[in-house]
TrEMBL record:
Coiled coil: none
GO BP term, example: regulation of DNA-templated transcription
Species of the source: Flavobacterium subsaxonicum WB 4.1-42 = DSM 21790
Residues the record lists as 4-aspartylphosphate modifications: 54
Pfam families with a match to the protein in the record: Response_reg, Trans_reg_C
Top-level taxon: Bacteria
Protein name, UniProt field: Transcriptional regulator
Length: 231
């Protein structure tokens, strides 16, 4: 995607300058912030096409920054840059709203490939029309646009990945949702590592629906998941 507007937040001066320059040479328009607070100040919904954010930042860490960005824009693609590789760190990145992660040190070529893949997917999503954004599931109501799941007078605010995973389960209600399809759409690849991350989010969704025994999310071994809603 030529001339895509990029918010790049990185506090390492040499890495930030080199990466920013290389992205510019690849056709991106980059605004570089050197701390989390400045990154949040620069972010304006609709002004950027993608965000590239380091986790360890002064002022405001990357996790908190992405949470704040997601409050303003639920759909913008976000890539985390991280020196961390523990499962819980990566899962946390997805949980707060990241779409992808890249471990340092990384090559500019790989970063550009991942950026273009997310931008292409975001472009397709933006051109799709949806007949409904509010769905009724048993005793629950799901508002995809607001990223909220309601039960009685209680509302659960969903993370970006919870929201998108639940949307796919609901639109395949009482049908098998292929695991690989979801991993490729939301996690970008179907590696074992990302499959474990998906399992974590399925567990969270099951807990959200605990108040209605007519709803269950079952594992179809080796294939995927099925949201069963008994009438």
């Amino acid at each position: 995607m030529n001339n895509a507007q990029v918010l790049y937040v990185e506090d390492e001066l040499s890495l930030g300058k080199i990466t920013g320059d290389m992205l510019a040479k690849s056709g991106f328009a980059v605004q570089w912030a050197q701390d989390g607070l400045k990154g949040l100040e620069l972010f304006v919904p609709g002004q950027f096409d993608i965000c590239i954010i380091d986790i360890m930042l002064p002022g405001m860490d990357g996790y908190t920054l992405v949470k704040e960005i997601r409050q303003k824009d639920a759909d913008i693609p976000i890539i985390f840059l991280t020196a961390r590789s523990l499962t819980e760190d990566v899962v946390k990145g997805f949980d707060v709203g990241g779409n992808d992660y890249l471990k340092k040190p990384f090559s500019i070529e790989e970063l550009v490939v991942r950026m273009n893949a997310l931008l292409k997917r975001a472009s397709k999503t933006a051109t799709q029309t949806t007949d409904a954004t509010i769905y009724t599931i048993g005793q629950y109501s799901f508002d995809r646009a607001a990223m909220e799941l309601s039960y009685s007078d209680k509302k659960i605010v969903l993370t970006h990945l919870e929201n998108e995973l639940l949307y796919r389960l609901i639109t395949h209600k009482n049908e098998i949702l292929p695991r690989q399809k979801v991993l490729l759409e939301l996690w970008k690849d179907d590696s074992f590592f990302n499959a474990r991350s998906m399992d974590v989010f399925i567990t969270k969704l099951r807990k959200h629906f605990a108040n209605d025994p007519a709803i269950s999310i079952v594992n179809i071994r080796g294939i995927g998941y099925k949201m069963i809603v008994r009438e």
